[in-house]
Design the sequence.
């Protein structure tokens, strides 16, 4: 589904990704986890084809990332909610629906799906932070893309909504959608089918949560992540 | 289709911003009224200057509005997202061009209505033709605004393009000094600035006017093509 090979990215004269290789399998929820500044957004931008890359390749659905044919099949939610603050939730959704040749029904459905039915007529600028990022999420889900790339979609959501959103992600995956979801909250890692652990622009773990727990010899994913970091540092030293 | 949806979206955004709409519609008419009282005793001067202003106002205002709107699209992240959807760059630029041109039609209608109806503006060309030229001038402003916004990272920078890109064109278009009285090299510069033809069109008739309008429209198309070329899907 997604194949990243030897990806090197430089941003502002600094090397941010140092030759990353990984594979995201189809029909699953893959979590991209790592500390702030580790390169999650940069990797995601490379996958959706808006990042200038230095070298290496990113292939999505068998085509180079960002190619025109992929724009119908890839949905992208940026980290900062990218919806129009001076439009209502409904107007935003209908505009993004129109970009995929879809109508008001699909747009309104997506708004309801993220739990914003009652706020549909409200200006996005007047929404709470969590509502705003759900409005942004709704706009990406409208086209029923084969690949959904979500950059920290659950930030600022309460536990109930978070559980609901993860339920929806898994329902989508069960229906064949592939999801790449970034997060820096470790308690979300356990909800993923697979994990990519990234640190300082390097992938330090690429496995199922169960295997990562087993390898590190702990049930706590956060602790497992820390042990992985320590063992990498040990190897480097 | 996508371009039209984009036009609709931009107009809807504008509609939610009542104050901007009010300013867009009222300010040119108010400034013309101010000119009227400034030149109360010399109606011919008023006729000359007001006519030129009917071209300069829409150009300047639409330039500013468009470059800020496009910059917002960039800084809010919506541009990055739009460029991952089936929307083509030309859909976006055409969407902006059409939306603000429609706004310019309404703005121009109010301004020419006030100028001819209330202030007794007297020109050789008909009010309808003047409105048409004013709208073409606005389209030029939109196109140059879209192009310039590609070179601005912040609102402060975008606003600075007004003195850099717009003011020299206003100074050299023949409003202050007739072009025939300018030094040769100033005339040469003025010859390659599109606003010169926008203003020239207002004061001429027949074939010359249509030639000028064609040049302005051509400059707008060139600016739009350059804007499309400078709009990058991939950014650092
Ligand atoms: N536009 C930019 N220009 C220069 N450097 C940048 C730019 N954007 C990000 N960086 C740098 O690239 C590195 C990776 O940033 P990135 O946004 O990918 O991190 P992240 O893992 O998404 O972090 P967070 O969890 O805080 O969102 C950081 O060190 C950051 O400072
Ligand atoms: Mg990030």
Sequence:
């Amino acid at each position: 589904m997604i194949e990243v090979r030897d990806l090197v990215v430089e941003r502002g004269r600094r090397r941010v990704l140092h030759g990353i290789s990984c594979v995201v399998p189809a029909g699953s929820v893959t979590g991209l986890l790592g500390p702030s500044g580790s390169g999650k957004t940069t990797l995601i931008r490379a996958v959706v084809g808006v990042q200038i890359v230095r070298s290496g390749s990113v292939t999505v659905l068998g085509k180079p990332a960002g190619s025109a044919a992929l724009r119908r099949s890839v949905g992208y939610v940026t980290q900062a909610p990218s919806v129009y603050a001076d439009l209502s939730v409904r107007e935003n959704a209908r505009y993004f629906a129109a970009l995929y040749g879809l109508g008001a029904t699909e747009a309104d459905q997506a708004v309801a799906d993220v739990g914003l039915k009652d706020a549909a007529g409200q200006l996005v600028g007047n929404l709470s932070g969590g509502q705003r990022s759900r409005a942004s999420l709704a706009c990406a889900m409208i086209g029923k893309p084969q690949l959904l790339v979500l950059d920290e979609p659950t930030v600022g959501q309460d536990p109930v909504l978070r559980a609901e959103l993860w339920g929806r992600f898994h329902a989508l995956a069960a229906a064949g959608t592939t999801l790449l979801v970034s997060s820096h909250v470790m308690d979300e890692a356990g909800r993923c089918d697979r994990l990519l652990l990234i640190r300082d622009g390097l992938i330090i773990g690429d496995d199922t949560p169960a295997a990562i727990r087993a390898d590190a010899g702990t049930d706590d994913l956060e602790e497992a992540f820390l042990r992985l970091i320590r063992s990498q540092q040990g190897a480097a030293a | 289709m996508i371009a039209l949806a984009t036009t609709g979206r931009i107009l809807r955004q504008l509609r939610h911003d009542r104050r901007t709409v009010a300013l867009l519609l009222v300010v040119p008419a108010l400034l013309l009224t101010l000119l009227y009282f400034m030149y109360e005793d010399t109606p011919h001067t008023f006729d000359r200057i007001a006519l030129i202003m009917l071209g300069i106002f829409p150009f300047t205002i639409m330039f500013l509005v468009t470059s800020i709107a496009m910059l917002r699209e960039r800084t809010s992240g919506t541009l990055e997202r739009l460029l991952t959807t089936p929307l083509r760059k030309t859909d976006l630029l055409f969407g902006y061009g059409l939306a603000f041109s429609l706004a310019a039609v309404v703005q121009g209608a109010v301004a020419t209505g006030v100028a001819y109806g209330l202030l007794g503006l007297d020109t050789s060309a008909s009010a309808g033709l003047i409105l048409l030229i004013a709208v073409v001038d606005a389209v030029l402003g939109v196109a140059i605004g879209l192009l310039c916004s590609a070179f601005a990272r912040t609102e402060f920078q975008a606003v600075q393009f007004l003195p850099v890109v717009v003011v020299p064109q206003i100074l050299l278009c023949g409003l202050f000094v007739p072009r025939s009285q300018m030094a040769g090299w100033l005339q040469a510069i003025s010859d390659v600035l599109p606003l010169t033809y926008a203003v020239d069109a207002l004061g001429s008739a027949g074939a010359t006017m249509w030639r000028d309008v064609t040049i302005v429209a051509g400059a707008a198309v060139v600016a739009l093509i350059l804007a499309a070329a400078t709009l990058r899907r991939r950014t650092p």
